């Protein structure tokens, strides 16, 4: 039912750094994984590894970068659960950062096999979050209606339903490689 996006398609794909404001000011990667809307003008995309810009490419920390074709599908299918932020063109291509707004509190901690940061961890943004995951069990009743989302206690991972992945393939939107480590399953 779910799979985890792990990176762009292959070793020839372009990988972007964390988007920056047009002034060059870096934005915190956590801005794109917190599920909150971002107010910004056109963003710039630093290139970490040059290569082919796929319909879906990735920035560090699993931030989707979309071409127009992919942006159309994300808008149609995800609606209010995605915010598209325009970027300066790269190699003549119009690109958007997909800020996934669905961050769901759906982790079944009792059945998951994971280690968590303690509640009093000195880096507050990591307190109670997943430190190491071997198998994460998701509460299906809380996540079922979402096609793409982040898990509240593990925001750096982007979760996508296999149905949405199949739809992307049918629509010719390529560029994703998925993996199941840690495993995600319905509880």
What does this protein look like?
The chain is mainly β and 187 residues long. The chain has one domain (2-104, 144-186). It is 13% helix and 37% strand. The chain contains three helices and 16 strands. The strands form four sheets. A six-stranded mixed sheet has the order 5-2-6-7-9-8. A hairpin with a 3-residue loop joins strand 6 and strand 7 (63-66). The longest helix has 11 residues, at 68-78. The radius of gyration is 16 Å and the shape is globular. It starts with a strand and ends with a strand. The model has no long low-confidence stretch (mean pLDDT 86).
Key features of this structure:
six-stranded mixed β-sheet, mainly beta, 16 strands, five-stranded mixed β-sheet, 187 residues
β content, as a range? 35-45%
What class, by secondary structure content? mainly beta
Q: Which segments are poorly predicted (pLDDT under 50) over 5 or more consecutive residues?
A: none
The DSSP helix count reads: 3
Taking the sheet with the most strands, its summary is: 6 strands, mixed
- Total beta strands: 16
Number of domains: 1
Radius of gyration: 16 Å
Shape: globular
Which percent range fits the helix content?
10-25%
What is the average per-residue confidence, as pLDDT, rounded to a whole number? 86
- The helix-strand sequence is EEEEEEEHEEEEEHEEHEE
Strand order of the largest sheet: 5-2-6-7-9-8
CA-CA gap between termini? 12 Å
């Amino acid at each position: 039912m779910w799979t985890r996006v792990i990176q762009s398609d292959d070793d020839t794909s372009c990988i972007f750094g964390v988007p920056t404001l047009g002034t060059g000011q870096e934005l915190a990667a956590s801005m794109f994984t917190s599920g909150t809307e971002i107010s910004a003008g056109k963003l710039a995309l630093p290139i970490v590894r040059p290569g082919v810009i796929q319909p879906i490419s990735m920035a560090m920390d699993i931030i989707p970068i979309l071409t127009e074709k992919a942006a159309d599908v994300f808008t149609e299918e995800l609606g209010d659960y995605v915010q598209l932020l325009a970027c300066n063109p790269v190699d003549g291509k119009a690109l958007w950062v997909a800020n996934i707004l669905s961050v769901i509190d759906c982790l079944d901690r009792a059945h998951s096999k994971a280690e968590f940061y303690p509640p009093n961890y000195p880096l507050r943004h990591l307190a109670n979050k997943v430190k190491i995951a071997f198998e994460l069990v998701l509460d299906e009743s809380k996540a079922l209606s979402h096609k793409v989302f982040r898990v509240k206690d593990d925001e750096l991972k982007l979760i996508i339903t296999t149905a949405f992945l199949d739809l992307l393939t049918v629509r010719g939107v390529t560029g994703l490689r998925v993996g199941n480590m840690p495993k995600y399953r319905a509880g």
